[in-house]
Design a protein that fits this description.
The complex is a heterodimer. Helices cover about 50% and strands about 25% of the residues of chain A. In chain A, the strands form five sheets. Chain A has a six-stranded antiparallel beta sheet. Chain A contains 25 helices and 25 strands. Chain A is rod-shaped and about 220 Å long. Chain B is mainly alpha-helical. Chain B is built from 13 helices and no strands. Classes of the chains: A alpha+beta, B mainly alpha. At the A-B interface, α1 and α2 of A face α6, α12 and α13 of B.
Amino acid sequence: MISRIAPILVATSSISILMTYVILSNNLPLSFLIYVIIITFGIGFFAFGSTFKHYFEIKEFLENRNLLISSKNELKAIEISVKNLIEELDKTKNSFKSILSAISELDVWIFEVEGDKIVKSMFSENILGIKDSETVGKKIEDIFVKFNPNGESEVRGKVKIVELKSSGNIFIARNIERRKNLERELALLKTVFEHSIDAIVLLDLDSKIVSWNKGAELMFGYKAEEVIGKPFTIIVPQEFHETCRKNFKKAILEGYAKDIESIRIAKNGEKIIVDQTLTSIYNEGELIGFVSIMRDITKRKEMEMKLLETCDELERKTNDLISLQRELEYLARIVETSNDAIYSVDAEGKIKSWNRTAEKLLGWKREEIIGKDSSILLPEEIKNETAVIMQRIRDGQRELRFETRRLTKGGEIISVDVTVSPLDNSGFSVILRPITDSLEKRMFRFNVERGRTYFTKDIYQAIEVLKDLKSFGYNAVIVSRRFPEEFKIDARFYWLSDQSMDFEGIYDFIATLEGWRNAVLIDLDYMLIKGKFNEAFTLIQKLRDIYYILNKGIIIVHSAVISKEGEALLRAECLEIKAKASAIPPEAFEILKLVYTKARFGEKLSIKDIMIELGVTRNTIKKRLSYLTEKGLIRVVKEGREKVIEITDEGKAIVIDAI
Amino acid sequence: MRFEIDVKKFTYAKNDIKILALLIMLGAIGFAVNTIDSGLDALFIAFFLGIVLGHFTGNEERHCVNRILKIMLPIAIALYGFNIYTPMLSINPEKILITIAISLTIFLSVYISSLKLGNTRDLSILLSCGTGICGLSAIAIISSIMKPKKYEFSSAIIAITVVGLICTVFYPVIAKILFPEKLYLLAGSTLPQTGLVKISSSVFGNEEVEKALSIKSIRIAMIAVVAFLISFIYSEKRFYVPWFIVAFLTTAFLGSYFGTAEFLRIFSATLFASTLAGIGMTVDLKEIYRVGLKPLIAVSIGAITSFTIFILLWLGGVV
């Protein structure tokens, strides 16, 4: 300051002194001294302004920017203000240095360009890999392959792609290779995300949907804009909400929950089975959401179910087959052990199968008869029977039942009841049953026949007939007012009373009896006493007809109190019971008949066999056998160490005659 | 701040009359001082007193002064023509040419040096016109056309006065040594103010004063040409000469050829000085001295150049 003021003072003073000297030495008017004063003042005035010009400028600058502190001493105020300003500048400088230091850590390069040359450079090693001093002076075209002052540019350096930002002639180049790579990866991930056939759903911490890919759209039918912001449970059935909550808990605790097979609901209400993986998403250690990847396994599951069903079906069918096989085996055993003679004939009339009973009945062993023509079993007069059967089968007849005759191996002709059924191979099966009804009829103690209705006035005779029939396996049924104890027979009882004497009911009861061997005793006394002859007669007529038609058994009508007219009418409708005359007691005849029957199949019974067959003690059997032996009807012979019973011709004759 | 004339909006407030009276008083003081010593220009004294007084007045008074100046300045300029000396027809045409040449030299040297020193164009024109033609009166008249900034106007007045006074002191001494008989020519052709010409040349008697004033009157006459030129240069759309310039030229012509009453001369001089006092009151002193030494140096260069030219002409025997 002094250095500037001093020359002004010296110059001004010099001019003043010089002028005063000139005025005085040249006798100029003294008023000229006033001029000197004015001159001195003027020069000093301008010199002061010139000297303090910068001071005033600084003061004005500080004032204009509100930086000047208020103080009486202007110079002091300016000094303090300037100091404050410098301190602020220092702080700013330090901040700037810190910023630069921070910037140096970033992948940036700051440079200044004049013309086409780089004149200043900072952090060029970050981008170019060379020092700033080497960078300065280089041309833009030497460094940049593609120079875009405000955009993506290509560089010849360790980094290839940078983003430039310019401010005037200062440029900042930022390494964006990592960002580019991330963008590429992101684009790839986005493509995968968008085009995945799996449903990929991003969820926030509240399990609300934030992203919904095309796969999810296709799988669930919801568009992204329809579900974004809505809870994930929109596609979870109500009953799975708790499970869903547990899965989220597991994902939070373990990071993920995978292999979740669950059911989801599509927009159209369709249920979809999905295999879901739920994964937690973390950002810098903080949970920010979840990603749910779901694969539609409905078809796979359906196929699995179908496969399981098929397996079950196969197993079931296998079981059925096994069962069928067993059944067949069982049936085969039944066939084999049947009391009926069963054999089959093929389309050519050859015998294909032959059971044990057939062996016994017809005398042919299986190995002997198989392959032989079935006509071998036919007597001469019906040799064409096989052809007739086959013709009728071809005509569509499914079953043939008839009585016929067969020729045994021994040449004996036997009467048989035949049932013929067609087989798949155009052949047929034949079931032979000896005509037992005739035999049975002949074996009854009374001359009664199935399908017939008989009348008797003797209640004891009626009971005896009933007992006889029951001994042949008939079901005994009694309709009477008498007490059951009076009959001394185990029978079903229809006890007549005023209330139960319903003729329709009685008809239904008798007509609907099960089976074909029913022995029904109808005691008309009570009905007649009650004056119900007409109804009773009508009942008898109806029952006679139905039993005759259906061959359901034998009806015995009894009345001791019937009038002569009534008796006449009943006898017109019913047959009379006649007792058979026989010299052999029935117990003995029973044994004779058994021995004869077994003998027909070539069997010889021992005493033990008869005991078993008839359920009678040995002594009783021996007594009866002794009786029959004495009569010459049987003889006891020894076969090896065992005694067996043989029927004699006389015995056969009696039996045949009885039958 | 620009000088504007708006009579319709002017209101004669009581305060305005007080200020007007004060200005006239300052003008009268200036005129009185000038009467005592013609070297102390009435305009400069009034302006100086205005600056001093303005330093102690408030903004309201300054507004008042500005309102008064809007009317007072053009009237003062118009009437100041009565104070202009007409050129003497008996002057040798050779001297007229020399005077015009020196004036132009001063004008150009000041203008160029001022611009080179970094002064504004307006200040440079004011400095060159003030130095080359007729000092403060030229500056006041030209300013009414150019409407420069007040600090430019003020710094030009001070710089020209200071340099003029220096020259006034040194010219008689130099002339006494070198060319006593040529002082009137040196003073008349180079000194800016009429009063300075008068006081400088008075050293060698009244005859020299008359001769110097006749030379000075040539330069004063140049104000008419310069006023027209400045009006032409500063006209914004079309050529326009303000009415007070026309009136100034008219009063100058009438006063020169038909004579001017003494009271009118005194009144016009006092009124013009009062106007300068008003301008001085509205000037901010800080703005003036912040201009620095540049106007002073520019005017000094003009003075040295004109003196050098004169010496060369003297040495060459032209004068």
